[in-house]
Amino acid sequence: MTGVWQCQGVTTTSAVGAVRQGSLRELNLAVVLGRIAAAARPPSRADLATDTGLTRATVSAVVDDLIGGRLVCESAPAPRSGAGRPARGLVLADHGPAGLGLEINVDYLAACVVDLAGTVRHHVVHRADLRPVSPADAVARLAALAADAHAAADREGLVLAGATLAVPGLVDAHGLVRLAPNLGWRDVDVPGLLADRLRIDPVPGVPPLVVDNEANLAALGELHAGPPGAPSFLHISGEVGIGAGIVLNGSLFRGARGWSGEIGHVPVRPDGRPCRCGGRGCLERYAGQEAILTAAGLTGTDLPADTATTTLAGLAADGDQAALTALHDAGTALGVAVSAVVNLLDLDTVVLGGGYATLAPWLCPAILTELSRRVLTARWAEVTVRPAALGPRSAAVGGAGSVVRAVIARPVGWLARSG
Amino acid sequence: MTGVWQCQGVTTTSAVGAVRQGSLRELNLAVVLGRIAAAARPPSRADLATDTGLTRATVSAVVDDLIGGRLVCESAPAPRSGAGRPARGLVLADHGPAGLGLEINVDYLAACVVDLAGTVRHHVVHRADLRPVSPADAVARLAALAADAHAAADREGLVLAGATLAVPGLVDAHGLVRLAPNLGWRDVDVPGLLADRLRIDPVPGVPPLVVDNEANLAALGELHAGPPGAPSFLHISGEVGIGAGIVLNGSLFRGARGWSGEIGHVPVRPDGRPCRCGGRGCLERYAGQEAILTAAGLTGTDLPADTATTTLAGLAADGDQAALTALHDAGTALGVAVSAVVNLLDLDTVVLGGGYATLAPWLCPAILTELSRRVLTARWAEVTVRPAALGPRSAAVGGAGSVVRAVIARPVGWLARSG
DNA sequence: CGCAATTTGTTCAGTGGTTGAATTAAATGA
DNA sequence: TCATTTAATTCAACCACTGAACAAATTGCG
Q: Is A239 a residue whose pLDDT tops 70?
C-alpha cells in the first residue's frame, strides 16, 4: 500500500459559497492579484501562469482586467539573465485604491494612508490626553485629521476605499465601543459619530468604516508587514492595559464575539494583588505600564505614557538597577502568561508591540527564561520573541492595511466601481 | 453616506488555489454535498438551488454526479404541506465510503467505522493496560481490531476510504509519535508499523492513514456531532494527562507544529506543587486523574482508570464529602485555566470530554464560578460549560468522522476512484 | 551581421459547465 | 375535471478557461 502519509488531516473547506459562472473570473482575479501582492519581486505573466497553474492565455486576460482597473501596473522590465523575450514585471499600482487608518488612544490621535502595496503614504500622530475629552469631541478632532489625510491621498492620486478605526477597548459587531476602560468610554456609537464626516465613496465588498480593537489591528499590521505566508503568532500590546492580537494561520482570530486577546487578566499570581476586574494576580497588575513604572520608581512624575516609557528605556540602558529589576519582573510575569498561550496554541512567534516594542531588549530575556521552563515542546522547537516590526503606534497602519487587503482579496468590488 | 457598518473586517481569502475550468464542477460538487450533509432535513434539488444560488439545472447535474458516485441517495419524499409536485429528498448514502477510526490509549484499544452521515456503524473497545506492552505489540493488537472493523464494513456494504489513529501524545507532521508520556512511548513510527496491515484502497485526496492527538480528534468528533455551523469551543479531555482540542470557526486549530492544546501545564498555582514538566503548579497536578483520585482517597486501589472514575462519580452522587471536595477543587483549578483560555480566545463554549464527561455534574459549578469571576466579558455574554455529546472515548469516532469529512470536502477524489 | 534558440505574450477556435427559459412531471384543491 | 403550484429536466446560448499556434523581443553563436 502506497500513499502520502501525513499527520494532520485535511482542513475541511469551510462553507465556501457556490461557484457560479461569473465567480470563476472573480476568483481568478483575486488569486492573480494576491500573487502579485505576495511576490518578492515583480512577477511576469508567465511567472504567474506557472505559479497558479492557469494558462498564460488566462493570466493575460486576467491581468488585462487588473491593469484596466488601475490595480496593477507594468514595471520596468527586470534585468533578465539568459535568452528570450524579456518579461514585463507586474506591480501593484501606486495610484489606485488606498486605505485610511485612524486611531483614538488614551494619549494620542492618529491618521494614516496606506496604498495597495502597503506603503505608508501619509501618517500624522496628534498627541493629546483624550481622557477628559468627550467621545463626540474626540471624534470631531479625529475627523479633522481624517480630512487632512483625505486631502493628502487626493494629492497623491490615491482613492480611499475604506477606513478602519482603532480604539483601546471592546468593540461589538456593530462597531459600538462597549467598553474602553482607560478612555472612560462605555457604549459609544463611534460609527454614528464619524461615518458622515469621512466622505468615502463606498467600494462594493469593502466596509466603508470598520471599528476594531487596537491590539487586533496592530497584529494585522505586523502580519502584513512580515513576509507573505500564513504565520501564527501572538502580538502583545503593552499600553495602559495589555491586549493581544492573535494571528492564526495568517488570519486574525477574533473569537466568538470579537473580544479575543484579553490577556491582561490571565492570572500569573492567583493569590496575588487584587485587580479591578475582580480577579487576583492578573498579568496587568505585574506587567502593565503603571505596574512597571511604579516598580521602577517613575510614578508620580506625571509624564505622558510614551515619554515615561522612553525614559524607562533610557534608565535601563544606563544600567539603573530599579529599572532593570522592574523590567525583569514584568518580563517574568509576561513569560508566565505567554507560556500558557504557547502551550495552548503551539505558536512559534511572540511579537512585543505597543510600549513593549521599546522595552523589548530588557523584557525578552526573562520571557525566554519562563518559556524554556514552562513550554512543554520547548525542547523540540524554539519560540521566537521579537519586537514589532512596525514599532509602537502601529494600529492605525494595520487598520489602513486591512482596508487594502480587503480590496486585494476581492478586486471585483473595486473593478465594478470604476468601470 | 450609506453602507453596511460592521465591526470586524473582511476575512482575507487565504491563499486559495486558482480556479481552473474543471475545478468549477469540482467545487460545486463539494458545495452541494456539503449542504446535503449539513442540512437538518433531506433537502430537495430546489432547496439546494435557492440555498447555494446555483440554478436548478446546475444542481440537478451536480446531484446526478453525486448519485452516480453512490455518495447520495434519494430518500422517501418528505411529507409536504401545500400544493405542488412533491420534492424528492436527498440524503447521504448509507452504503458509500466510510471512515475507520482507531485509538491506542493507556488502558484500552478501540476501532470503529463511521459512515458518510456520521452514524457509528461498528465500534469495539478492547480494555487492556498498554503500558507494559511494546509499541509493535500494541499496534499488532490494534491491527486485529482493525481487521474486524474492516470485515464489518464489508458486511454493511461500506468501503473504507481512510483511517485515523488517535494516540495520547504529541504527533509530528509525518505521523511519528514524538512523545506519549503516559504510554511511555518516544519517537515511535506508528504509520510504519500499521500502514501495511490496514489494506485500505486509497482514495485520491484522502490520506490513507492519519495519526493525531487524542484530544484533537475528540474535539473533531464533538464538532461533527453538534449542529452544523462554524462554532468555536474548547474541548478538554481529562485522561491521565489533560489535553485540549481547540475548534475555531468550525475547524480544528493545530498550531504551528500540530502541538496545540497542551493545557495540562498551564500554571494555576505558580508557586505550587512541582510538576514533571519542570514548572510548578501546573493544572495537571490539581485536576489530573491521579490528583483527583488521590484527593478523594481512592488512590492505591489499583483500579483501571475508567472504573476509578465511575467509582468516584458514584461516591459523589452518594454525597461522599471527600469526593465532593476533590471534585470541587479540581473544578476550581480547571476554572482558573479555562478562564485564561476564554479571556484569550473569547470562546462561548467549553466541552468536558474524556474522563471529565462522567464527572461534569460535579465539576461544572466550580468551573462556572471561576469563569464568572475571572472572565472580563462574562457580564455581556454567557460561557456554556457542558459534557461532551459523544461521551468519553470519543477520539476514535472523531477520527473516523474526520475521514468521511475529507471525502465530503472533496468528493471528486472518491468519484474519480469509482468510475 | 545573420540566424537559431529561447522565452514572453497574444490570438483564436474549441470545450466544459453554468444559465435561463421553456417544458414536462406530479401533486393539491376548487 | 381542470386550474394552480411546485419540482425537476431539457436545450440552446453564453461565459471563461484551454491548448496550440503565432508573433514579439532578446541572447548567443558562427
A: yes
